[in-house]
Structures are given as structure tokens and as C-alpha cells.
Amino acid sequence: MNNLVMLALWVLVGLLAGWLAGVVMKQGGYGTREDLLLGLVGSLVGGGIVWALGASPEAGMAAAAGVAFVGAAIVIVLQRKVWPAIA
């Protein structure tokens, strides 16, 4: 798997994680668009950190998707706990 495919996977997983977070965690969010953005940012940051630490694209799609999902989930949970929206 090359780097472009891995980046595309991170984007897809981040958007999916953001959407799922909006569905599951109704309270404290800013809305669907912001959940998607948070998921995307978390996915790219998480994937980028692991890539910078030396993970190779040959690790596989499941590993890349897992890292992206964990990064997205961390950012979304932090948003809900640290700086929740004012309702």
C-alpha cells in the first residue's frame, strides 16, 4: 500500500469516525460538520504521528485504519470532555 492510499484511508476513516461520534455522542458536540472535521483532523494527526515514528505503508490497511480511528476518537472525546459546546 503506497502513501497516497494510506492518506486516503486516513481521510475516509476520520470522516466515518466523526460521523459515528455525532450519532453516538449526541451531547456536547458542535454539529455534524464539526464532528466530521474533528474526526478528520484526529485521523490525520494520529496517522501522521505513527507514520513519522517509522510505521511503513506495508503494515496494511487494517493497521492504518485502526490508527486513524484511534486518533479521531481521541480528538472527538477530548472535544466533548474538555471544550464542550454551550447548549
Number of strands: 0
Low-confidence regions: none
Count of helical regions: 3
Overall pLDDT confidence: 79
Measured on Cα atoms, how large is the radius of gyration?
13 Å
Element-by-element helix/strand order: HHH
Explain what the structure shows:
The structure is a single chain. This protein has 87 residues and is an all-alpha fold. It has one domain. The protein has three helices and no strands. It has helices at 3-24, 32-52, 61-82. The longest helix is centred in the first third of the chain and has 22 residues, at 3-24. The model has no long low-confidence stretch (mean pLDDT 79).
Write the layout of secondary structure elements.
Blueprint: H1 3-24, H2 32-52, H3 61-82
Helix pairs in contact: 1-2, 1-3, 2-3
Summarize the structure.
It is built from 3 helices and no strands. It is mostly helical.
Keywords, separated by commas or semicolons:
87 residues, 3 helices, mainly alpha, 75% helix
